[in-house]
Amino acid sequence: MTAAERALTREDFRHEIAIARTATGAAHIVPLLEEGSTDRFDWYTMPHCTGGSFRPLLTAPGGPTAAGLRVLADVADGLVTLHERGIVHRDVYQENVLLHDGRGLITDLGAARRLDTPRGPAGRGSEVHWPLEYATSYNTATPAADVFSLAVLTYRYLCADIPRHGHSRRQTAPAALRPLLAAALAPEPKDRPEMSDLRRGLHAATSTAATHRAATSTTG
After folding, report:
1. DSSP per-residue letters across 161-192
2. Residue 156 maps to a domain
3. Is residue 172 assigned to a domain?
4. Whole-model pTM?
5. Residue 163 falls within a domain, yes or no?
6. Is residue 35 part of a domain?
7. Which residues pair with 35 in a beta bridge?
8. Which amino acids are annotated catalytic?
9. Residue spans of beta strands (DSSP E) within 67-190
10. How far apart are CA 208 and CA 200, in angstroms?
11. What is the domain count for the chain?
12. Over the chain, what is the mean pLDDT?
């Protein structure tokens, strides 16, 4: 890298450290343990999460489980806290959800922005988990963007499909979650529910799935 590119990369990494510091102590967010700086580079450490990422759960045999729903509810918990602290993650997807002792933790705050400061280019290319507004207003994305991205991940987990394939498998999701997922996937940010609404729905679905599993185990 050129000196200018190196300086920009270092500035971005320092931003990530600062965001991680702001998120310290929040439940279901991988915490910053230590940080430091040398003449050549900056660094910070995080705990090792033993369960890997959420990706294998998207294709796990046997379909959705209460354990997977609980992880998604954990992610919603963490995002609510980030939003309350004035931070939008902007890159919620399976690789950025880590598992530890069966619980979900959000990681990789490198793309995050503070709500009071535009960051990054105005437009970004399309990704499955990104909302449509990233094409024109990525630098000012709001918490509604995280709502959309978590809804995509939830849909993929529950319906074994990508919600923008031109057809819907939403009927395979728990009935109580279907209208909430439809709203969270709305093209317009203003039409989406709050992250706290999605959190309540995921926690309710987790409880229902756990109760059903317990009842099935008892009768079986």
Report:
1. S-TTSSS--GGGS-GGGHHHHHHHT-SSGGGS
2. yes
3. yes
4. 0.93
5. yes
6. no
7. 44
8. 91
9. 87-88, 97-100, 103-106, 113-114
10. 12
11. 1
12. 93
